[in-house]
Specification:
2 helices; 53% helix; 17% strand
């Protein structure tokens, strides 16, 4: 019975730590670029885009498809990077435990 109480306290602490990390991830940002820096995207750990910067020299009205591809590539890379950051931070809290439902391959 004593071990169960200890385990429940550990689980509660981990839940509180995970909630704290989730909140902190909303304030953290990552940056990704495409086209050699022609398009830059800044995104939070909650996958909210905070900024998109496009260099004027890549804006060509006759080739909008290239610009669209650059924006898409930068956004997708930013999402991947933010997801990796989230996984890393959550793994720190979970301590490598094999708990169903946790991100980062801990399933």
């Amino acid at each position: 019975m004593r071990n169960m109480q200890k385990m429940m306290k550990q689980v509660q602490k981990m839940q509180a730590d995970m909630a704290r990390v989730q909140e902190e991830l909303g304030a953290k940002t990552v940056e990704a670029t495409a086209g050699g820096g022609a398009v830059k995207v800044v995104i939070t750990g909650h996958l909210e885009i905070r900024e998109i910067t496009i260099a004027p020299e890549v804006i060509d009205p006759d080739d909008m498809e290239m610009l669209q591809d650059l924006v898409m590539a930068a956004v997708n890379e930013a999402i991947r990077t933010a997801q990796e950051m989230t996984t890393t931070e959550m793994e720190k809290v979970a301590g490598g435990l094999n708990i169903p439902g946790l991100p980062g391959g801990l399933l």
